[in-house]
Target: Protein kinase domain-containing protein
Amino acid sequence: MVGIGVKGLNQYGDGLAWVRGSMIGKGGFGSVYLATPKISRSRYSYYPSIMAVKSAEFSASASIQKERMVFSDLQGCPDHIITCFGEETTIGDNGLMAFNLLLEYASGGTLSDRIKKSGGSGLPEFEAKEYTRSILRGLDHIHTTGYVHCDLKPDNILLVRAPNDSNEFQAKIGDFGLAKRAEVESKKRRLEPYWRGTPMYLSPEAVIDMVQEAPCDIWALGCIVLEMLTGKRPWSGKNTEEVLEKIGAEDELPNIPTEISEEARDFLKCCFVRNARYRLTAELMLTHPFVEGLEDDDDDDSDDSIEEDLSDNESIFSVSAESDDEFRSGSYCSSCEENDDNVEDESVSNYADEGEVKVEKVKGLSEERFHL
Model:
């Protein structure tokens, strides 16, 4: 059992009603373990037969505790956002106190795992459509609730077995450790000193101006969809600095291959609008032909209300792309190679207690140093 130390110690201990199992993941935030309920107790009857427990030493658990608060605010979208069953403080066999977040277990792994299994060819378009629609549903709820995810990427999209079909999985958004409250529209916008997230999926406004609001999640979604359809990352680059330079350049956009369907290409163009003001919202993107009208659509009624306000969806999507002068330039960078080992994949936080890594000024961007 990985959760037990070399000397047989349970590092973080068990909960009142659950037993810690093997470790299934590890990151800067802490570690993730499988967990199973002890015995049936009415107070904890809502626990599923298996959970994922995200744990960290209490003194270093600020990110997980913040994530718990975000989950509390995002209740009400269990089909598209990972469910949180609560939190608990435990004591390990060595006296170590830990903070634990009890989460829904994704037996299908991450979307990143699924893409890797495609062998570099990408997913079938019908599968990518289903996942995209579910992610959009989750994003719409997140943005409507007043949050920005800030770290949307395949690693943070979890595949949970569909309740009605054991052979299918539904995509759910997870990992809200870097989520932030959306800024209220005002003449004076408060700029953060650093950006948060993973470099490969950052939007132009995040790299150039350190602005991360709801449109940055739509840009990241485009990167995810492109990766699903092609099996390749949205940007090529020898290192993080090269990727940031391309994202920040006025005439660069991810390469959209001609081999994918016209609907998919148009959807990606709507995501990759460099000017955030012209990028469509998750609510409007849900009416795009690429994801509209899919089978098993559990939220048709909400789409009807959207469509009542739209006289012509096609014109809205075309205006979105054509309103951006930078997008009209049509200058795309080359597609990413299958493995960019030198490009940083880890999420980057702007929380002081999680440390900072400074990256030198990127050519063509701001004179300021980037804090990763």
Summary: The chain has two domains: 18-104, 111-371.
